[in-house]
Each structure stands twice: as C-alpha cells, then as structure tokens.
Amino acid sequence: MGVREADDLCRVAEGLVRTARTLLADHAAVQAQALTALDTLRKHTVRDDLARMPVARLKDVTGGRLRTGVLERSGITTVLQVHDMSAYRLQELPGVGAQTARQIRAAADQIEEAARQLASVRIERDDWKSEALVVALKRLLDAGTELPFHVRAARDVDSTLSPLLKAAHPARSRWRLLTASRRRRAEAYEAVEAIDATLDQAAQAGREFPQVITDLLRPPASGPEAWGDFEFRSADYYALLADLAGERVTEGVLPDDVLARVNAQPLDDAFRRVSLRGYQSFGARFALAQKRVIIGDEMGLGKSIEAIAALAHLAAEGATHFLVVCPASVVVNWVREIEARSTLKAQKIHGPRREAALDEWEQEGGVAVATLDGLHRLTPTAAVAMLVVDEAHYVKNPATKRAKAVAAWCQTVERVLFLTGTPMENRVEEFRALVAHVNPGLEISQGGPQAFRKSVAAAYLRRNQEDVLHELPDRVEADEWVEFSGDDLDAYRQAVADRHFPRMRRAAFAHPATSAKLKRLTELVEDAEANGLKVIVFSYFRDVLNVVGERLGTERKLTGDLDPDRRQELVDAFSATTGHAVLLSQIVAGGVGLNLQAASVVIICEPQLKPSTETQAIARAHRMGQTRKVQVHRLLAVDSVDQRLLEILAAKTQRFDEYARRSDLAESSPAAVDISEQALAHQIIEEEQRRLLS
C-alpha cells in the first residue's frame, strides 16, 4: 500500500475516532448532569431520613455511652439538627463540653454516612427535588434503548484505532518513512494493515454515532413533558436510575459456591433490547450459571425479562433454538415480550398455524412459544438450548399429561428455567415436585423450613417486591394480551357486521365457557388468592361483570343503580375481609368517589373510551393509605376493538396524561380532553369492517 493510500485510510479512521470521542464526551456530559441531580436528590433523601430520626439514636453509635438528655433539654430532637450544628455551636449548649461536642458530632457524622450509603432514591411525582433527575434521565432515555451499546462501540473504536493511528504515523509521509528506523517503519506498515483490516467493522459500528450525538444534544425536556414520559415508562427510568446509583442486589439465600459462580457468570447483551435492574441481571446469571433452576420472584418483578436475558445471552454464544412453554392465555404476551425485549424471533406454536410455525422454527431457529397443554405434541430434542416453563406451578402434579410432557423435555434439554410466583400453593410436596423436574438429583431435606430452604438454595431463587423495589411507586402495570376463542371471534364478527360498538367491546366475554379473557382473569385472581391479595375487577359493562361473578362465585358488585350508601357498605365489607377477596365494579360506578385501597390487584376487562376513566378507577386503589404495591392488569384481545382503541387513543392519551398529572383537580375533570365517543366508535367500526372483509 502506497503512502497516499495509507494517508487516505488513516484520515477515514481519524474521522471515526473523532466522532466516537464526541459521542463519548456528549454522553459523559449528559450522564454527569444525571449524576449531579441524583446526588442532590440523595442528599435531600438523607436529610429527610435524619430529620425523622430521634436524637436518642446517637447513643446507638456509641454503645449507649453518649448522653443525649442535654440535647433534648435544649430543644434538639433530631439527628439532622445535630448534623447541621458545628462542634463550636454544640459547646455553647448547657452541659456540653469540648469532648462531648466532638463525640456528638462524630456520632452524627457516622449516622449520616450510613444513611447516605443505604439511602434508596425514590422519584416522587411532581416533586421539585425529583424533577431535575427525571429531566436528566429523559435525555439519556431519548437517545434510545441501544445507547449503552453505542457508547461501548465508541469506546471500542477509540481504543482500537487510536493506538494504531499513532503507530501508523510514519507511513503517511515519504519524508517520515525515510527518516524512521527500520523497526519503526515495520511497525507503521503493520499498523496500516491492521487499520485496513478493522476499518470496515469500525465504520459499521460508527454508522449510528452521528444520530446518537444528535439525540444527546437535544435540549432538555420541560418538567411537565418529562413527568408525562416518566409516567408512561417509569420502569425504564428506574432501570437507568438503578444503573447510575449502583443498585444493591438482593441475592436471596445462596451457598457461597453458587454465589461465586453467579457473580463470575457474564451476561452478553448483544441480542437484548432492554436494560436490566441489578436483581434481574442477577436472576438471569443465576439461571445461566446453575443451568437448571426455579426463579420464584413475586408477581410484578419481571421474571419474563430475566428469562429473555438468559436466552439472549445463549443466542450471543451461538445457540439457535429455544422453547418457552406457558398457559395458552399468555402465549401472545410472551411473543410480544420476546420481540420487544430482544432481537430473537418468536414463533407461536399454537392455533391454526401451529404446524407451519413449528416447521419454520425447526429450520430457522428462534424462540418457540407453546402451550402447556400442547407440549405433548412436540418431540423433545437436545437442539433446544434452554427450556423456559412459565407459570410452572401448573405442572406440580406429576400425574397430569402436561407435567409428564414437561418432565420428558426436562430430561432431554440441558438448561431448564421454571418461572412461578407461587411455587408452593398448598403443600410442600408441590414444591418438591417442581424441584424434581429441574434437578431430580438434588437431595431435598425432610426437616424443617430452614433445612428445606438450605437444601434447595442451589436451584431456587426468590425475591419479593419489598426486597428489590425500594424506590418504585406502588404500582406495577401489565397488558394481558389474549386471542379470541372461536366462539368469541364469531360473536365479534357479528357485532362488527351489525355495527354494534358496545357488543364489539364485550365480545370477548360472549361465550364464558371458551372465553380467553375470562380464563386469564381467573388465573390472575387465583394467583392473587395464593398470595392473600384483594382484587377489584373493573368493566364498563354490567353483563361482563355478571359473567365474571358467575365464574368466580361472587355476587359483590358495585353497579350504577346502587345508591351511595349501599356502595359504601360493599366497599367496607370488602375492606374488612381478612386476606383474599374480590370486588366487581362498573368502572364508572367504582371509579369515582370511593376509596378502594384495600385492593392491591386491579383487573380492567376492556380499554375505556377515555383515558381519564381508567386513570380515575386505578386511583381508587392507588392512593394514600395503600400499604401494598398495586398491580394493574389490562385484559386485551389481539386484532380487535381493544387494539384499535389503543392505537387511536395513543396520542390523545399522552395529552391527557400531561394534563391530569399536573393537577389533582384533573381527576374530577375528564372532560378537559376532547374525545368524541361517537366519532371514535364510527371510526373503529369502519376500520374493523374493512379489516375483516379484506
């Protein structure tokens, strides 16, 4: 290669390095703003903690040797007051000498340091102390979910090309070649060849750098805009916050050797499209390191994301085929989650295209998603790199067909991951049966609970919400997508043909015996019952609630024809019930004016025509006085009015969110957003008629 060609090649490489360094500098600047805002919020959090801490806690630091009575007699009642006082100011208090003042200050500083290390930063809605952090985090999130990958690629480009460019310098000029030593010329030629060999790959990685830089340089959002976005995707904000804050990971009770393997286990994110919380990363690495395990995290912690992260890692290592087995009611959810959270291709091995999808999966690979009841039709194969069984408690009875099918696959596949929030519902034998599936050689203690937990620790990991979600708002939302049954689809088609919009909205419950929505609703209620949680089910339609009530065996219903006193009696009886209970409510009747914070699980049977209707209903449970995380489940039917409503209302929902969340009064003013129900109905009917006739 001649001098001119070498110089041209190096110029291209220099341009890539400059762009990579610009991206890294801009990212560092935006990240620094977030870290500054985080540090400010953490300081406020620590001060709030110290302000609530009685001054008597200073004695704990000194083993009881420090007397705090002199402080209390001077009107100093909290650790914060002491922390804000200088030693000189303390000495001015009656009965406090120089040595005592130093001891008091040292004790307060130790408590402040401990509080700072343990402080869990929580973003409080519309709190001025949190707003700067939310705005800063939004700038990072708006750069895209792949920002961490671009930053890493920029570092790789810089670290690879910069030393090569320095070494290649003599090869870019005839004069420098003539004056360089033989060894230096040889090094320069080698560097030019190395640049030539790596430049195409570096250029491909740097193709997105200019757009990322543009995204990072966008002006920061306004406070209301950032808060609206935070409400829409708070999980992404908290995942990024946990990463910036260095989240402490709750590992559960694991033996030292298992813990060492998990900590040493890498987690490749090349095929993943979602940032993980620290505990989610730990769960995925636990599944990879131990190979055959049960993750029994409580509802709402993202077990599916942990599984997808493990699958994506194996795919990055070259694995091609994976299998997820789950109840039919969550097949669509799994397909959507896999495609949204990773670059892996999902194949639904269920329904009329089952055979074609199975052939395509066998030939092309990806993640097959099959039902528990249909698994016996698939032939176990060792080509599957990991088997994931969701809602694994459904296979606790080894005598059932589904359990036998799962057992056959477990015996064939090297890696097995069971997911269940209720690994033991009634008897410890159920738990033993699940462990026997994933690790039949594990010796499970017949002793008491402590011995049992210790014996299964190598194959079982569970975290509860209070263990890992210290800073999250008390609300976890999930869209539960299902497919129409044949009978329900017929009812839906007829409703569309008749241009009957209300019947279209409730067609998913037209045939209770085969209703996919009703089946998923029943599973959610059963899960809540197993965890002792109260449930409120909302629907706009009274006949839908009647169907749900018959299935669940409850007559406790809030409807529009009840007078206010009777409504309150029902709510009081629901709240007074010990443990699990179910309350059914028309969303308009129960969504306004009642406090339902006894409920921690909210199920909404169909999308509402106005976003404010749902917001108000959820606010009945998610409000002051709530002691549990509120889980909100929306039942949605694929390719139906549900999907059309969500698509059409998306833009207006964002507008409503910005309004509603800026004022408490918005909760009583749904008319502030102009959404014409009649026009919306006509639009959806026309679209559905065109779709079904095409």
TrEMBL record:
Coiled-coil parts of chain: 104-131
GO molecular function: ATP binding; helicase activity; hydrolase activity
Residue ranges of every copy of the Helicase ATP-binding domain listed in the record: 284-441
Signal sequence range: none
Pfam families found in the cross-reference section: Helicase_C, SNF2-rel_dom
Chain ranges of the Helicase C-terminal domain: 520-671
SUPFAM superfamilies: P-loop containing nucleoside triphosphate hydrolases (SSF52540)
InterPro entries: Helicase_ATP-bd, Helicase_C-like, P-loop_NTPase, SNF2-like_sf, SNF2/RAD54-like_C, SNF2_N
Keywords (A to Z) from UniProt: ATP-binding, Coiled coil, Helicase, Hydrolase, Nucleotide-binding
Protein name (Swiss-Prot/TrEMBL): DEAD/DEAH box helicase
Organism (species): Herbidospora galbida
